[in-house]
Prior knowledge:
Blueprint: H1 10-16, E1 23-25, H2 38-45, E2 52-58, E3 62-67, H3 72-76, E4 83-87, H4 90-93, E5 112-120, E6 134-141, E7 144-151, E8 173-177, E9 182-185, E10 189-194, E11 199-206, H5 211-224, H6 247-262, H7 265-276, H8 294-302, E12 307-309, E13 315-319, E14 323-328, E15 331-336, H9 340-348, H10 362-373, E16 377-379
Helix pairs in contact: 5-7
Amino acid sequence: xxxxxxxxxxxxxxxxxxxxxxxxxxxxxxxxxxxxxxxxxxxxxxxxxxxxxxxxxxxxxxxxxxxxxxxxxxxxxxxxxxxxxxxxxxxxxxxxxxxxxxxxxxxxxxxxxxxxxxxxxxxxxxxxxxxxxxxxxxxxxxxxxxxxxxxxxxxxxxxxxxxxxxxxxxxxxxxxxxxxxxxxxxxxxxxxxxxxxxxxxxxxxxxxxxxxxxxxxxxxxxxxxxxxxxxxxxxxxxxxxxxxxxxxxxxxxxxxxxxxxxxxxxxxxxxxxxxxxxxxxxxxxxxxxxxxxxxxxxxxxxxxxxxxxxxxxxxxxxxxxxxxxxxxxxxxxxxxxxxxxxxxxxxxxxxxxxxxxxxxxxxxxxxxxxxxxxxxxxxxxxxxxxxx
Length: 388
């Protein structure tokens, strides 16, 4: 857990800093033994399913990017300075690393994007930039300097760099961080990190849906369900003027969109839950080719087997007055409210075992079968997989 300064708790952080102003928390995470070494990180960057980048350059010459997977020879050929290796979604490839995310349990888990780790040689940086998401920058090894600027709403970028590097950056704050320090940077705040010595930084990013993404998700939702049409039974001759669109027509269209999605609680639940759990396609689990036999699943659970979340899957849940939802990898299952405990445990709790009485509920059993078929839930035991 984060070691907050005396008198400073998560509630105060959310009230005074979350999506508002940066905050440095010295020595907040002193125990980072779960994170990989630079050598392990380089090995991970050689794997074809891992998203990785090598960034080389400086403010004078600009920055260039190479995308992985890499080979050992690529690292042996690197110069002694001015380069950075970045590896995305480390917690999905090395599940033990996910333990670090528990330190940020004061932020809704569905907002989490990924845990990225970067290793920088002396002089290494990715240039001054802004992010569209909240980020906690955890210093793991070595010392690093961070320069913070003002919020930028319309950033202008350098044309000589592969990255979106700010063409103008005026720092207002300069911070030198050491292992265990955590720096929070809100969306849109310009920041520039650079290393005078070899250093490792862990970036915990939290994403948020844009208005455009919500509208696209609403369109997909309406396409699956009843899609009401624009109607004007109240049309009068006074509003007809050739090809002109009347104010009354605009009002009808606005009411149609509002009633179809915004005023439907269930539609908004489904829309946000599915959007929040969409994952990167290359990280999603493979579907199980065999038909799931729930009788055999229950037998295996009774024999001590347990089902856990696939590390590449994203989960979320919602509990309403008379219903609940479980979401996984862009899909949603609506259940009666009695299944709320199942939804919570499946998304956030320990592995599912035979002690969870509601797994014998027919509706819960159906969802469990769907999750196993999609590969979202897998057996924790290392015994050979059985046909289910």
